[in-house]
Amino acid sequence: MWWRRTLSRSCRCCLGCGRSGAKGIWSLHTRPVCSAPALPAGRITALQALDVWKRHFEEKGVTEPEHSSQYIIAHLLGAKTIESVDQQSLTQFLSKEKTEQVWQLCTRRLSRMPVQYVIEEWDFRDLTLKLRPPVFIPRPETEELVELVLTDLQRHPGAAETRRQTCLEVGCGSGAVSLSLLKSLPQLEAFALDRSQDAVDLSRENALRLGLQDRLKVYHMDVIKDAERMLGLFSSISALVSNPPYLFSEDMATLEPEILRFEDHAALDGGEDGLNVIRQILALAPDFLSDRGRVYLEVDPRHPPLVRRWTEENVEGLRYAETRHDASGRPRFCILQKEESHKDPDQD
Ligand SMILES: C[S@@+](CC[C@H](N)C(=O)[O-])C[C@H]1O[C@@H](n2cnc3c(N)ncnc32)[C@H](O)[C@@H]1O
């Protein structure tokens, strides 16, 4: 089985701060909208269309020109990758209708729309998710966040009587994180929330498509503005997970303009120090978590010491447990744990 993959695994913090040479498939140059090559007068094969568009993307400075044309044309031929298209489909002539579809989708890519939005879907771990702007496109490093949570939940499978485990995700976007956890853990129930109605709708749609809707409740809520409401809804949560907006506001200016044009600004900008949403999650965590329940956060590499210090100084009952590194060795994940509440027996 071929999976769609970004070959240059750049991450969001690098898109923001410009520390990475390699750019991901959603990372695009700033250019005015370019015109498409004319539709061919005669018939054309998929291989020829691949070549026309690869060269056109190159000429116009569209990043990852080869992969862009490959993913779009593979998608139109009913496959995920060009490698999984059979040779005959590549070498026979495309129908007029198919050729027009190739031109239409590749022209969208020419306007710098990320491939994931052009083909309206992408793979995240073992799921294929529906995607549309402006809902945040899940990044590869978030698969590592899911892996961390999964490993922990599999190691500590809930109270013996029920084996019930619950997860709360703040900022669910397309639903990638919660749905991945639900797919791998049949005993898990998940709650997810997002301030964006588009994200809430897309998460629900993806849950339905994947048949996971019975174990996922999605709320249209803002973790900062709706804290009171949240306190009435969530308790005894095993894992509080978030890939929040965590870019430093000053880095937003250095972002590729097309990311800002197509993706929700509020999914990226974490405020002056990138911690606006993170601080709120940490402050609320002890109220939501079960004893020894954990918080799992994806953060900027500059964040772990700041998160540790802020928690130690401001949050009672939450202990900074550890920092985890991503595949390229950068400190990207913070894990915190709720301390066990010791009930005073005289109080009962
Ligand atoms: C970086 S995206 C992550 C989306 C998804 N979890 C993923 O990894 O693909 C952050 C998400 O948090 C949401 N968000 C931002 N601020 C929020 C807030 N104050 N309350 C709830 N959700 C928020 C955004 O709408 C966005 O969907």
Descriptive report:
- This protein folds into 2 domains: 31-111, no CATH class; 132-342, 3-Layer(aba) Sandwich (Rossmann fold), CATH 3.40.50.150.
- It is of the alpha/beta class and 348 residues long.
- It has 14 helices and 9 strands.
- The chain has helices at 12-17, 46-59, 65-76, 87-91, 96-110, 115-118, 141-155, 176-184, 197-209, 227-233, 249-252, 257-262, 276-288, 303-314; strands spanning 121-124, 127-130, 165-170, 188-194, 216-220, 237-242, 289-298, 318-325, 331-338.
- The longest helix has 15 residues, at 96-110.
- The chain is elongated.
- Helix content is 39%, strand content 17%.
- The termini are far apart.
- The protein has a 7-stranded mixed β-sheet with strand order 5-4-3-6-7-9-8, sandwiched between helices. The protein has a two-stranded antiparallel ribbon with strand order 1-2.
List the helices and strands and how they pair.
Blueprint: H1 12-17, H2 46-59, H3 65-76, H4 87-91, H5 96-110, H6 115-118, E1 121-124, E2 127-130, H7 141-155, E3 165-170, H8 176-184, E4 188-194, H9 197-209, E5 216-220, H10 227-233, E6 237-242, H11 249-252, H12 257-262, H13 276-288, E7 289-298, H14 303-314, E8 318-325, E9 331-338
Parallel strand pairs: 3-4, 3-6, 4-5, 6-7
Antiparallel strand pairs: 1-2, 7-9, 8-9
Compose a concise summary of this entry.
By secondary structure, this protein is α/β, with parallel strands linked by helices.
